[in-house]
Amino acid sequence: MCRDGALESEMVSGNNSFLRWPKLNPSARTEKWFLDEVAKAMALAQARIDKNPKDAAALYALGISYGLRSNYYWVVKKAWHDSLKDATTARRLHARVEALEPDNVDARLVEGCTITSSAAFPGPGAR
């Protein structure tokens, strides 16, 4: 994504030229590798949460994993609905972290970024 210039702050600005870019086309191997690695991280975090639902570190890691996948869907695939679904899950997980650890500023940062970036999502019918 960085190599393709897709990690710029202008992506979430009001005059977002990114929305008009064609979606990125990583190789099937690259896409599989990325999504498999995110899935591994999710499985590891979920296994810890299954043992202890109040494991703040695992909740945070799972939220970050959903956030990374959300970014992939948004930037690479332009799959708005899938991206928003994962971003919402990430935000909810980090809200749980904040409830367990009120001083965890990283969890609050992720919540704020999710709210801010969701404002850049195109409306119905956007391409």
Helix content: 55-70%
What value does the Rg take, in angstroms?
A: 15 Å
Please state roughly what percent of the residues sit in beta strands, choosing from under 5%, 5-15%, 15-25%, 25-35%, 35-45% or over 45%: under 5%
Structural class: mainly alpha
* Separate helix tally: 4
Low-confidence stretches: none
Please give the structural blueprint.
Elements: H1 28-51, H2 56-77, H3 80-100, H4 105-118
Helix pairs in contact: 1-2, 2-3, 3-4
Q: What this model shows, in words?
A:
Helices cover 64% and strands 0% of the residues. The protein has 4 helices and no strands. The protein has helices spanning 28-51, 56-77, 80-100, 105-118. Helix 1 (28-51) packs antiparallel against helix 2. The radius of gyration is 15 Å and the shape is flat. 22% of the residues are buried.
Overview in brief:
The protein has about 130 residues and is mostly helical. The protein contains four helices and no strands.
List keywords for this structure.
single chain; 127 residues; mainly alpha
